């Protein structure tokens, strides 16, 4: 799913895999071998993404309740479906604009070109460990000498998305504890203080352990980020926060459809808490959606006993924001051609 955030350290720990190195530093092979390898990679990416969706639907507990079908058909009118699809479009539009702004450091992409990058990368991310395909696929749409910069920009976009998840999640957890778990108020305060302390300590720790990403030190990454105009960083961060709010309100709208009325403040707090907790769990992508459903049931179980509705909502969110965008994304992956890159940039 195009989730509001994911653990950057989990992504970066996989950054030096052969898969990513292939996309960044593509080896020069004979023409026929290159064509065969490109077709094979395309089929593996799309096939892997289809397998993830099939596996999730097969293992989903949302269909175990016999009344699920009747419940869904009675709630989802044409107007409700239209609203949900519109929110999905808005969600992806914010993601596309975020990448368009970040990529302007290298090329001034059109909206169509940025959309192709994001949707194709979404399919690759779904079928690769720790979503590293997102990095590699976007890099393929740029010249070889620009690809390492693309990795940094992709990382920055994911970092902003994670920042939105953490900030809203921390506020949400505080509200949930205040209303439902008041005995943990002091634990929450201590946790916030620890997080603030870690936030300032984290950069120094990375420098101390000489952490690097694709051979670039943390100091080099900071220097590259400093070269970005403040306008680019502010706009990208704004789109990341906008995307989060759209995504969260889509979930809230589904809660209302299923008559789970907990109040706007508590509902949004439970949603933000769920996304924060699920994004902190280091799981393979094939298990991500299953774990996310389990976390949703656990978090919302503090306020409601309607587990089947929560599972159905999680499934619908996944289908709208992961499975549906995979259709155009798969087309862009299968029709990718280096010769078309210049056309894509200005389309």
Question: Could you please describe the fold and organization of this structure?
Answer:
By secondary structure, the chain is an all-alpha fold. It has one domain. Helices cover 76% and strands 1% of the residues. It contains 15 helices and 2 strands. It has helices at residues 8-13, 18-24, 31-59, 68-75, 78-103, 111-126, 133-140, 147-180, 185-208, 218-227, 230-257, 264-279, 285-300, 307-334, 341-346, and strands spanning 212-213, 216-217. A two-stranded antiparallel sheet has the order 1-2. Helix 11 crosses helix 12 (264-279). Mean pLDDT is 77; it is low at 7-16.
Which features does this protein show?
347 residues, 15 helices, 2 strands, globular, single chain, mainly alpha, two-stranded antiparallel ribbon
In brief, what are we looking at here?
By secondary structure, the protein is an all-alpha fold.
What is the count of β-strands?
A: 2
Q: How many strands, what sense, and barrel or not for the largest sheet?
A: 2 strands, antiparallel
Strand content: under 5%
Structurally, the number of domains stands at 1
Poorly predicted residue ranges: 7-16
Helix/strand/pairing class, anyone? mainly alpha
State the helical fraction: over 70%
Query: How are strands sequenced across the largest beta sheet?
Result: 1-2
Number of helices: 15
Order of helices and strands: HHHHHHHHHEEHHHHHH
Could you say which overall geometry the principal axes of the C-alpha atoms support? globular
* Gyration radius over CA: 21 Å
- Overall average pLDDT: 77
Distance between the termini: 27 Å
């Amino acid at each position: 799913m195009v989730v509001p955030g994911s653990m950057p350290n989990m992504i970066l720990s996989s950054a030096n895999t052969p898969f990513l190195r292939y996309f960044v530093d593509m080896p020069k092979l004979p023409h026929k071998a290159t064509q065969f390898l490109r077709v094979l990679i395309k089929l593996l990416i799309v096939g892997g993404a289809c397998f993830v969706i099939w596996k999730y639907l097969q293992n989903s507990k949302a269909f175990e309740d016999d009344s699920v079908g009747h419940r869904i058909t009675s709630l989802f009118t044409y107007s409700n479906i239209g609203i949900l699809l519109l929110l999905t479009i808005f969600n992806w539009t914010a993601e596309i604009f975020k990448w368009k702004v970040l990529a302007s450091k290298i090329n001034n992409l059109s909206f169509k070109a940025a959309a192709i990058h994001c949707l194709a990368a979404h399919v690759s991310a779904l079928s690769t460990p720790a979503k590293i395909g997102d990095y590699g696929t976007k890099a393929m749409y740029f010249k070889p000498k620009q690809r390492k910069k693309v990795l940094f920009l992709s990382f920055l976009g994911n970092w902003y998305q994670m920042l939105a998840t953490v900030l809203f999640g921390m506020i949400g957890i505080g509200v949930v504890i205040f209303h439902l778990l008041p005995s943990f108020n002091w634990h929450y305060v201590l946790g916030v203080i620890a997080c603030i302390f870690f936030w300032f300590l984290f950069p120094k720790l990375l420098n101390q352990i000489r952490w690097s990403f694709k051979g670039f030190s943390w100091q080099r990454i900071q220097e590259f980020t400093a070269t970005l105009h403040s306008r680019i960083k502010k706009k990208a961060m704004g789109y990341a926060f906008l995307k989060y709010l759209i995504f969260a309100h889509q979930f809230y709208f589904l809660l209302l459809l299923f008559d789970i009325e907990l109040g706007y403040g508590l509902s949004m707090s439970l949603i933000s808490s769920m996304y924060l907790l699920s994004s902190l769990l280091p799981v393979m992508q094939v298990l991500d959606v299953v774990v996310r459903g389990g976390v949703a049931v656990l978090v919302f179980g503090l306020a409601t006993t309607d587990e089947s509705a929560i599972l159905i909502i999680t499934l619908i969110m996944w289908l709208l924001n992961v499975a549906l965008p995979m259709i155009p994304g798969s087309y862009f992956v299968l029709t990718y051609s280096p010769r078309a890159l210049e056309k894509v940039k200005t389309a």
